[in-house]
Predict the structure.
Amino acid sequence: MGERMRAVSQRGYGGPEVLEVVEVERPEPGPGEVLVRVLAAGVNPADWKIRSGEVDRFGTPPFTERFTVGIDLCGTVVALGPGADRFRPGERVYGCAFPPRGAYAEYAVVAESALAAAPAGTHAADAAALPVSALTAWQALVRVAEVRAGQRVLVHAAAGGVGHLAVQVAKARGAHVLGTARAAKHAFLRGLGVDEPIDYTADDFTALARGVDVVLDPIAGDYGPRSLEVLAPGGILVDVRGTGPDRTAVRALAEQRGLRYAEFGFTPSGADLAQIAALVERGSLRAAVDRVLPLADAAGAHALGEASRATGKLVLTP
């Protein structure tokens, strides 16, 4: 029997209570993979969607094998699989692991292509809060929307995990940024660089945001058609929600109005993570970590996240 480790595991779908800390065998890296000792693991909506079965990744329970969720991580390289040669043991990296061998564990096996050197000078928790949210924000705004200086960008849920990073990416590109959030979070938004905070609980953003070139929407639902109302001719709505109601009607409405609409999901990319790390090192991007919890309290972290009680990101540490 090989070395053992602690991991947060589950055997079926359900609420946060299905998450258990168990002892399992430490994985070994395969071709093109890297074994990482996890120093911190970020918590994302994707994690609780997979945990609950909202995202059907493993088929119909009951399962014969346990699985571990978690995508974001920061850690140190322990061993390399055949063909993996970009990193050396002891190097600090960050990136994306994937269930069933996810990041909520003391060790994780990660595709080398999904890793980059962690931003210099950052704590592990700060780096672990970045990958999924930062890749979503960066790829959506830079690769899809091609945001450039002088444009007006509206970020919905601007204090959230993706939103607060999207604000900073847009500002780094020279955009004028509008952001929706409750009034209590407006000081936080201004600290990130938001030029026009909008309290969605008191005001209709369609009345305040006009001539917008790019809308980044992590909410979907009625935010899609409403967001089309604020776009300038040729503008683009980028929907990064991932799952939710059918978007056929929104796409058709955008086409009728001569607007662009894109449903977007991030792609793990070590190359893009390297560019994100450069932004962090220049002081243009930082992850807001709401709180750091022990790995054993993964269920509590999921409960907090699902209740939208965090500003920025939640992080687990072994």
Summary: The chain has a mean pLDDT of 95. DSSP finds ten helices and 15 strands in the chain.
